[in-house]
């Protein structure tokens, strides 16, 4: 691994909120007296009724309970909107850049306030009440932010489902959340192609049952079937709604949103985040990690369907009164230089994207980047997966002209906000390292037995204490929450990631150590892809593992055993790929499928994934002990028929 170090420049240490001395002082204070520290930080948002209790958290597996600011009363939309009207009503809140470069829009804080109030009134008119779950299945249009904030305003709980998910995946999420209301669009638009969102929502509603209302935002104007009584066009309802709507009084621990994410087993789980602690943490990290100052133009390229979009397009920036850019399109449309062109067009100062995007844009060479100015850029960010030093260096040198620090931010859907990251005025940078913990975060490295390791070491990453943005439970299944995160290493939150800590105390995340694959920064459970494959009538068994992929970070490698009577073929391979796309969504498409007459199993029938992983990774010399296999002969066949990477 690269051990190159980039020191903090004096320009940065003098202009940033936090320099190294301040970091050390604040970090020590946050650990020494979390109640005093977070009690003070909680004041960065407005409370209708101030809290008197700051922290009440337990990681004890017999009694996992996480509460922050528990007797405080506030409202997230109030904090993102009303609070700013007096001082920045005319300031741009959202810059929207369409898929088509000729389409864009600027929405001020006052306009945003009015749009959100109207949206909230539409939801109310459709019967939505405090505590109800609303599923949002929208493209990257301003209405996605309006809908989220409208839910927050009236105390409804949103569940945003990424527009790339299939009707089946959407149906599962609607059902699990018990949503009776779905907000969608006629069609989405990405890279010049239309996405049939309303048709997908219809199919999902048929499958899930219980959907009483579908609110359809017009994006393309394409004609879509509307079921009378159930379906309404948003614009037709909104035009008659008042631009005022009272913000509901919410307890700090009332749910704000559910976001589904893949785990190592079973169906995706509904990660539940609540109101007060989440907002405090999203706002604070957004301010300090990106060193956000008034007037800065900030762009996070994520989709609102992922947690990055929740915390760092919508809630963190808007709570801070920032100008946040929302991009509907993709990095390579209409040209491979689109990101850099948008940066110049809107004078973006802070740019936050994913390693997979950087790696794919790197392939097009420097020219598309260099023909843009990017003079407005001051800070670059990375999120979603480990960034390889080569991509880091390219991002730094080519995109940032050797001038912009890179914050490599490690966190998870579950953590609500960034936990391990450099602060640009405080932390020297090592390409590939997420560096140091944010305030209040207590990372520990443990070995397989849970022994806490000291100094420079490598093992599994756990967190020894709570932070305000932490998820509170798995929606509807608290036991699964406890089992997934607190049972492996009793008393600690287990991240599922491996990591190395170097002699400077810097953290290097090495990737998932469970059966989760990180494909282009998106989490995919191997079990989910397997169950999609075995649902195909010609498949009898499937085992899915990750393997290193040049662009995606990890690719999906599927070993498939066919039912007797069916023969492997290229056609069948394509059929299976399309099948998985249809069952889950394009992000779950297997990159490589190997037809295998048998899978390596123990005598008790358990598939030995370790061996499958090694073969997919091309590490045959290193298969480990295969003597416990029921039929060691299958291994030779698997090696002989290994699919070539890329
Ligand atoms: C997993 C969480 C957090 C928002 C996007 C992904 C990996 C995330 C980094 C990073 C190394 C990273 C981890 C983590 N990950 N950021 N900077 N360096 N790995 O959220 O879908 O919940 O996935 O993404 O493996 O556990 P997510």
UniProtKB/TrEMBL annotation:
<dbReference type="GO" id="GO:0005524">
    <property type="term" value="F:ATP binding"/>
</dbReference>
<dbReference type="InterPro" id="IPR032387">
    <property type="entry name" value="ACAS_N"/>
</dbReference>
<feature type="binding site">
    <location>
        <position position="581"/>
    </location>
    <ligand>
        <name>CoA</name>
    </ligand>
</feature>
<feature type="domain" description="Acetyl-coenzyme A synthetase N-terminal">
    <location>
        <begin position="23"/>
        <end position="80"/>
    </location>
</feature>
<dbReference type="InterPro" id="IPR011904">
    <property type="entry name" value="Ac_CoA_lig"/>
</dbReference>
<keyword id="KW-0479">Metal-binding</keyword>
<feature type="domain" description="AMP-binding enzyme C-terminal">
    <location>
        <begin position="528"/>
        <end position="606"/>
    </location>
</feature>
<comment type="similarity">
    <text>Belongs to the ATP-dependent AMP-binding enzyme family.</text>
</comment>
<keyword id="KW-0007">Acetylation</keyword>
<dbReference type="InterPro" id="IPR045851">
    <property type="entry name" value="AMP-bd_C_sf"/>
</dbReference>
<dbReference type="InterPro" id="IPR042099">
    <property type="entry name" value="ANL_N_sf"/>
</dbReference>
<feature type="binding site">
    <location>
        <position position="512"/>
    </location>
    <ligand>
        <name>ATP</name>
    </ligand>
</feature>
<comment type="function">
    <text>Catalyzes the conversion of acetate into acetyl-CoA (AcCoA), an essential intermediate at the junction of anabolic and catabolic pathways. AcsA undergoes a two-step reaction. In the first half reaction, AcsA combines acetate with ATP to form acetyl-adenylate (AcAMP) intermediate. In the second half reaction, it can then transfer the acetyl group from AcAMP to the sulfhydryl group of CoA, forming the product AcCoA.</text>
</comment>
<dbReference type="GO" id="GO:0016208">
    <property type="term" value="F:AMP binding"/>
</dbReference>
<keyword id="KW-0436">Ligase</keyword>
<feature type="binding site">
    <location>
        <position position="332"/>
    </location>
    <ligand>
        <name>CoA</name>
    </ligand>
</feature>
<feature type="binding site">
    <location>
        <position position="539"/>
    </location>
    <ligand>
        <name>Mg(2+)</name>
    </ligand>
</feature>
<feature type="domain" description="AMP-dependent synthetase/ligase">
    <location>
        <begin position="82"/>
        <end position="464"/>
    </location>
</feature>
<feature type="binding site">
    <location>
        <position position="308"/>
    </location>
    <ligand>
        <name>CoA</name>
    </ligand>
</feature>
<dbReference type="GO" id="GO:0005829">
    <property type="term" value="C:cytosol"/>
</dbReference>
<feature type="binding site">
    <location>
        <position position="523"/>
    </location>
    <ligand>
        <name>ATP</name>
    </ligand>
</feature>
<dbReference type="GO" id="GO:0046872">
    <property type="term" value="F:metal ion binding"/>
</dbReference>
<dbReference type="Pfam" id="PF16177">
    <property type="entry name" value="ACAS_N"/>
</dbReference>
<feature type="binding site">
    <location>
        <position position="497"/>
    </location>
    <ligand>
        <name>ATP</name>
    </ligand>
</feature>
<dbReference type="Pfam" id="PF13193">
    <property type="entry name" value="AMP-binding_C"/>
</dbReference>
<feature type="binding site">
    <location>
        <position position="536"/>
    </location>
    <ligand>
        <name>Mg(2+)</name>
    </ligand>
</feature>
<protein>
    <recommendedName>
        <fullName>Acetyl-coenzyme A synthetase</fullName>
        <ecNumber>6.2.1.1</ecNumber>
    </recommendedName>
</protein>
<dbReference type="InterPro" id="IPR020845">
    <property type="entry name" value="AMP-binding_CS"/>
</dbReference>
<dbReference type="GO" id="GO:0003987">
    <property type="term" value="F:acetate-CoA ligase activity"/>
</dbReference>
<keyword id="KW-0067">ATP-binding</keyword>
<dbReference type="InterPro" id="IPR000873">
    <property type="entry name" value="AMP-dep_synth/lig_dom"/>
</dbReference>
<keyword id="KW-0547">Nucleotide-binding</keyword>
<dbReference type="GO" id="GO:0019427">
    <property type="term" value="P:acetyl-CoA biosynthetic process from acetate"/>
</dbReference>
<feature type="binding site">
    <location>
        <begin position="408"/>
        <end position="413"/>
    </location>
    <ligand>
        <name>ATP</name>
    </ligand>
</feature>
<keyword id="KW-0460">Magnesium</keyword>
<feature type="binding site">
    <location>
        <position position="534"/>
    </location>
    <ligand>
        <name>Mg(2+)</name>
    </ligand>
</feature>
<feature type="binding site">
    <location>
        <position position="520"/>
    </location>
    <ligand>
        <name>CoA</name>
    </ligand>
</feature>
<feature type="binding site">
    <location>
        <begin position="384"/>
        <end position="386"/>
    </location>
    <ligand>
        <name>ATP</name>
    </ligand>
</feature>
<dbReference type="InterPro" id="IPR025110">
    <property type="entry name" value="AMP-bd_C"/>
</dbReference>
<feature type="modified residue" description="N6-acetyllysine">
    <location>
        <position position="606"/>
    </location>
</feature>
<dbReference type="Pfam" id="PF00501">
    <property type="entry name" value="AMP-binding"/>
</dbReference>
<feature type="binding site">
    <location>
        <begin position="190"/>
        <end position="193"/>
    </location>
    <ligand>
        <name>CoA</name>
    </ligand>
</feature>
């Amino acid at each position: 691994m690269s051990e190159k170090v980039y020191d903090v420049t004096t320009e940065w240490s003098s202009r940033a909120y936090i320099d190294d001395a301040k970091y050390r002082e604040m970090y020590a204070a946050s650990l020494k007296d979390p109640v005093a520290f977070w009690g003070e930080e909680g004041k960065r948002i407005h409370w209708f009724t101030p809290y008197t209790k700051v922290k009440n958290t337990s990681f004890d597996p017999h009694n996992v309970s996480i509460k922050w600011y528990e007797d405080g009363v506030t409202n997230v939309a109030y904090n993102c909107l009303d609070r700013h009207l007096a001082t920045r009503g005319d300031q741009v809140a959202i810059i929207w850049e369409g898929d088509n470069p000729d389409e864009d829009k600027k929405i001020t804080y006052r306009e945003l306030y009015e749009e959100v109030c109207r949206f909230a009134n539409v939801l109310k008119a459709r019967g939505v009440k405090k505590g109800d779950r609303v599923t949002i299945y929208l493209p990257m249009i301003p209405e996605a932010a309006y809908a989220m904030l409208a839910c927050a305003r009236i105390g409804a709980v949103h569940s945003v489902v990424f527009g790339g998910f299939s009707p089946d995946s959407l149906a599962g999420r609607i059902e699990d959340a018990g949503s009776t209301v779905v907000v969608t669009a006629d069609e989405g638009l990405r890279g010049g192609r239309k996405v049939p969102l309303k048709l997908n929502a219809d199919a999902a509603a048929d499958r899930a049952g219980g959907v009483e209302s579908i609110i359809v935002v017009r994006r393309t104007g394409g004609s879509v079937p509307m079921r009378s009584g159930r379906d309404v066009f948003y614009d037709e309802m909104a035009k008659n709604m008042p631009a005022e709507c009272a913000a509901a009084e919410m307890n700090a621990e009332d749910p704000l949103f559910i976001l589904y994410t893949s785990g190592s087993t079973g169906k995706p789980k509904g990660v539940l985040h609540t109101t007060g602690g989440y907002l405090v943490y999203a706002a604070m990290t957004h301010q300090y990690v990106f060193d956000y100052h008034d007037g800065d133009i900030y762009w996070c390229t994520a989709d609102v369907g992922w947690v990055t979009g929740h915390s760092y397009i919508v809630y963190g920036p808007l709570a801070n009164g920032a100008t946040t850019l929302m991009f509907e399109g993709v990095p390579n449309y209409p040209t491979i230089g689109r990101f850099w062109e948008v940066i110049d067009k809107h004078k973006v100062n802070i740019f936050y994207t994913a390693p997979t995007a950087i790696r794919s844009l790197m392939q097009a060479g420097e020219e598309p980047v260099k023909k843009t100015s990017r003079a407005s850029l001051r800070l670059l960010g990375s999120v979603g997966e480990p960034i390889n030093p080569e991509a880091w260096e390219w991002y730094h040198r080519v995109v940032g002209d050797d001038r912009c620090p890179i914050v490599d931010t490690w966190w998870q859907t579950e953590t609500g906000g960034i936990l391990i990251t450099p602060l640009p005025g405080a932390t020297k940078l090592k390409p590939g390292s997420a560096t140091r913990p944010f305030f209040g975060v207590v990372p520990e490295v443990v070995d397989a037995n849970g022994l806490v390791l000291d100094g420079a070491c490598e093992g599994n990453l756990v967190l020894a204490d709570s932070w305000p943005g932490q998820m509170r439970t798995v929606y509807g299944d608290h036991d699964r929450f406890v089992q997934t995160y607190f049972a492996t290493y009793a008393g600690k939150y287990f991240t599922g990631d491996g990591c190395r800590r170097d002699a400077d105390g810097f953290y290097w995340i090495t990737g998932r150590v469970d059966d989760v694959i990180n494909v282009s920064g998106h989490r995919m459970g191997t079990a989910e892809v397997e169950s999609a494959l075995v649902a195909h009538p010609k498949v009898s068994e499937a085992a899915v593992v990750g393997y290193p992929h040049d662009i995606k970070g990890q690719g999906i490698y599927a070993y498939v055993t066919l039912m007797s009577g069916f023969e492997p073929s290229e056609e069948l391979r394509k059929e299976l790929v399309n099948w998985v796309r249809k069952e889950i969504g394009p992000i779950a498409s297997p990159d490589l499928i190997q037809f295998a007459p048998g899978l390596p199993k123990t005598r008790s029938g358990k598939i030995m994934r370790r061996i499958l992983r090694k073969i997919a990774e091309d590490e045959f010399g290193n298969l480990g002990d295969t003597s416990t296999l029921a039929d060691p002969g299958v291994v030779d066949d698997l090696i002989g028929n290994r699919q070539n990477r890329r």
